[in-house]
Specification:
Elements: E1 3-6, E2 9-19, H1 26-39, E3 44-50, H2 51-54, H3 61-78, E4 86-89, H4 95-104, H5 109-113, H6 116-122, H7 131-146, E5 151-153, H8 159-176, E6 184-186, H9 221-229, H10 246-259, H11 263-269, H12 275-302, H13 304-333
Parallel strand pairs: 2-3, 3-4, 5-6
Antiparallel strand pairs: 1-2
Helix pairs in contact: 3-12, 4-7, 4-13, 7-8, 9-12, 10-11, 10-12
């Protein structure tokens, strides 16, 4: 097991990342980023802005560069502490791409073609079906194995990819000798699942074509309030939480997050009131919740010199670990190392 000793405390290694395509949402905050902040005190955390993953879909170069900066700044705005965690941009650590190539040599075509996300996205048309989309689960495996991660936070949509990572690590270890830690899934505390404001049976997504479906962490107060006032609700008027009322249940979840209350407390607070009473309260609460994060983000983003320094420090810290792993891998597969 890969462990890092800090003082008298031994901390397991954990790795996670977000693709730098599009703006981060309230769903990203509730489902992942809030947990990342908590994990910093318990684990040796590597948090990555995954720009290599972003280009599995065609990107506008200038927009990708800006999005990468924005995601990095938002990580810091929500509470990622560069003194506690290693925060870096994926493409600044070339070992990710190098290890991917080695892992490709032990990955079967059938293993990648069975990945659900590849099948779903490639079914949309030939333009979406590129080699990087096919291969990105192997890149994800390289991301994890480079840092000898013990644990990887995963949602339902990534469990299949982590299983591939475990298989490749086991296969490499068996073929060449023990090299990689076999990562385990990290199941965080049950985080709030934020649904689309317009289609509440679907998860809120930063890539949704309908911008009114999604609350972005950069949205202005008036935009947040407008989106929530126009959110789809259900038949009836009672503020109740149930599976057959996904619209109002989603708004109850939003209010519970913004006010740090349980679902039961929210339902009790609005007992006897109607959707007409509840929606404005949700709109105000969510706007107030996001405002300080957005304001801090805007402040961080202005200091480009500081952000560049953070990226340099993070890249060097990440590379120190990544280089050690890659050197072992290169030696074991038979690559020559330059002498002198």
């Amino acid at each position: 097991m890969s462990l890092v000793e800090l003082g008298n405390q031994i901390k397991p290694v954990i790795l996670s990342g977000v693709a730098s395509s599009g703006k981060l949402t309230l769903g990203n905050l509730a489902g992942a980023l809030k947990n990342w902040v908590k994990l910093q005190d318990q684990y040796n955390c590597y948090y990555m802005v995954a720009d290599l993953h972003a280009i599995t879909v065609r990107q506008v170069p200038a927009e990708l560069r800006q999005s990468t900066i924005d995601v990095l700044a938002m990580f810091i705005a929500v509470g990622i502490d560069i003194e506690k965690s290693t925060l870096f941009v994926q493409s600044h650590v070339p070992e990710h791409a190098e290890l991917t190539w080695v892992l490709n040599s032990i990955t079967g075509m059938g293993e990648c073609s069975r990945m659900t996300q590849f099948k779903d996205k490639s079914a949309k048309g030939t333009e979406s079906s590129n080699v990087s989309l096919f291969d990105y689960p192997v890149l994800m495996a390289a991301d994890i194995l480079l840092y000898q991660a013990n644990l990887v936070p995963v949602g339902d949509d990534q469990k299949q990819h982590l299983e591939l990572t475990r298989n490749l690590a086991t296969r490499f270890n068996s073929t060449y000798s023990p090299t990689f830690v076999i990562p385990e899934p990290y199941i965080p505390e049950v985080g709030a699942r934020i649904m689309s404001l317009q289609e509440p049976t679907k998860k809120m997504s930063k890539s949704d074509d309908n911008q009114n479906s999604t609350i972005f962490l950069t949205d202005k107060d008036e935009d947040i309030k407008r989106k929530i006032r126009r959110a789809v609700t259900d038949s009836g008027t009672d503020v109740t939480f149930s599976k057959d009322k996904p619209g109002i249940s989603n708004l109850i979840t939003l209010y519970s997050i913004a006010k740090n209350k349980t679902i039961k407390e929210v339902v009790a607070e609005f007992n006897g009131l109607t959707y007409g009473d509840f929606k404005p309260a949700v709109a105000d609460a969510v706007a107030d919740y996001i405002a300080p994060i957005r304001d801090k983000f805007e402040e961080i983003k202005k200091d480009k010199k500081h952000l560049n320094e953070i990226m340099k420090i993070g890249a060097e810290k990440a590379r120190q670990t990544a280089r050690k792993t890659l050197r072992k891998v290169y030696k074991k597969v038979g690559f020559l190392e330059l002498e002198g």
